[in-house]
Amino acid sequence: MNALLLTTLVVLGLASILLLWKKDKRLVGMFNALFAVTLMQWAATLFNNEGAMALHVLSGVLVLGYLIAQFVPKKEAIGAISSTVLVLAAFFIAGKGEMIINEGTTAAETKFIVAGVLMGSLVPFLVRLKLNFLSKWVPALLPKAWSVAVYPLLAGLGFLIASLGSPIYGPMLVGAAFLINSFFDNKRSANTGISVYALASMPLLMIGEEVNPSLVNADVIGGLLMGAFAVVLLNKLWSGEKSILLTVVAYGIIFGTILGITNAGGTYEQLGGFDAFIAILVGAALSNAIKGKSYQGVSLLAPLFALGLFVPALLVNEEEKAEKKEIITMDVSGTDDSGEPVQGPTVLPITDLSGNYSIKADESVVQFELGKEGSRTKGQFKKVSGSFSISEDLSKASVNVIMDMKDFTTFNGMRDKSLRGEDYFSTDRYPKMKFKGTGFTDKGNDLYEVAGIFTMLGKSKPVTVKMQRVELGDRIVLIGSGSLDRTEFGMSPNANEGNVVDFNYQVDLQK
Question: What's the CATH architecture for 318-510?
């Protein structure tokens, strides 16, 4: 389906550009309907059978609304009645069942859906009637001018209310109401409907991806503004005298910038990534609802969704895939991809390991991460050296771990070079990190805590780590976890980069 979906979105985008170029507006409604139907059919492949049927019926209703508009008078009253009847019919025929997507289950609540649909069908018409009446005495209240603000407002209210009934399907019903209205020559509702569909479909891009867009993140704010800029630029392009060169340059600037911002997240998460791409899509959809032209939205939003299908693949860190060692972490019980329960490794007692051990450097790893959820920087020390001295009295046991900065990586050469510089780790002056601990404190169930001193950047501070021994063939393997605040060692605080470093380790021992 992804190949077909990608092809359809690309063709829609290119064809809509041709439509704009030829100034042929006769097929604008059809292209808008095709874009919405494409997104609905994509969603249908991800829902359960009942959800898919509801989306198929809504797709058919949208097409039916377009066909009706070709054979009846282009009057707003007819559009308002048609959109209300058709969309509510789609809901009552097939939309009241249990809908399941990405392990989430919803059953659309009628009162929320009906209220949301009315915001996109009858209410815009009633508002225009009222403004028509009032504008006789107050010229500033001309409906054509106020629709720029009123339609996005109604769409926002409808989106919110319908989402309470069903998160993805509900807003798509609202978008369908606006689009069917637009088939009866109401251009502003076309912008609104296309934007609502784009916003409703964004969760489909994020299924299975780790993304947490937050308005406090600079890359998200930048993405929102970039999306808005794209719409404004295209607005100016299609309003003036057009040339092939100017058109190619404009779209090249837009998608080149989007790719640049998105890929920047592979170097520094704070500069871009998937969350920034989602923000660009949001900014473009919102700006299209307010400022876009009715025949312009698909030329930007369709290619954006096509690009969104490949963004996760573009952000795969090949260096991380090649170098990162998989380790056993504590508390790994859970479920696998098929939902089957997975048990963590068998935990063995440490008490029968009396003796002195060295750490097998090539088979031992410390992994760490820091930052906000959805944009965390990850890395590892690919080798770890040192020794363990384990006595029968575990309160007298000791550990000495050494991590060489030449074995340090965040799986990005440019970033690693910066981190080894004077602003961060100053590796020329401080080439190693060390942890020395004494005494294993029994916390029950063969879980121990080791209190010790961690040394970094010439400063030594107390750090406590957890530790367990796990069964892994005939190897002697200790795993554990801990955290530390890097600012305590003299590093500058940074809310975006993160101050608290969480780490997991796995070390192999030999006598």
Answer: Beta Barrel (2.40)
**Residue 400 has which token pair?**
């000495």
pLDDT of residue 268: 58
Please name which of 198, 193, 224, 411 lies closest in space to residue 294, comparing C-alpha atoms. 193
Average pLDDT over residues 284-292: 90
Residue with tokens 């859970």: 334
| Digit-coded pLDDT (tens) for 153-188 | 899 999 999 998 888 999 999 999 999 999 987 778
Checking if the pLDDT of 418 tops 70, the result is yes
- Tokens standing for residue 435: 């942890």
333 pLDDT band, cuts 50/70/90, is very low
Nearest to 292 by CA among 197, 191, 224, 193: 191
Burial code of 252-269, b = ≥16 C-beta within 10 A, e = fewer?
eebeeebeebbbbbbbbb
Question: Which amino acid is located at 311 in the chain?
Answer: V
Q: What is the pLDDT of residue 374?
A: 58
Please state, for a pLDDT cut of 70, what percent of the chain lies above it. Answer: 89
pLDDT at 136 over 80: no
* H or E element in which residue 187 lies: helix 187-206
User: What residues does 355 pair with on adjacent strands?
Assistant: 390
The model's confidence at residue 237, banded by pLDDT at 50, 70 and 90, is confident
- Domain boundary assignment for the chain: 2-314, 318-510
* Confidence at residue 344, expressed as pLDDT on a 0 to 100 scale: 64
| Burial of residue 363 (number of CB atoms within 10 Å: 0-12, 13-18, 19+) | middle
Other Cβ atoms within 10 Å of 25 Cβ, number: 13
Which tokens sit at 18? 């041709």
Among candidate residues 155, 158, 29, 173, the one with its CA nearest the CA of residue 87: 173
Q: Which tokens is 79 given?
A: 């559009």
CB 295 within 8 A of CB 185: no
Residue pair 448/437 in contact (Cβ under 8 Å)? The answer is no
Does residue 51 or residue 310 have the better pLDDT? Answer: 51
- The Cα-based distances of 318 to 268, 276, 321, 374, 405 in angstroms read 15, 20, 5, 19, 21
- CA-nearest of 379, 396, 280 to 323 is 379
> Are the C-beta atoms of residues 65 and 84 closer than 8 Å to each other?
no
d(CA 101, CA 511) in angstroms, rounded, equals 52
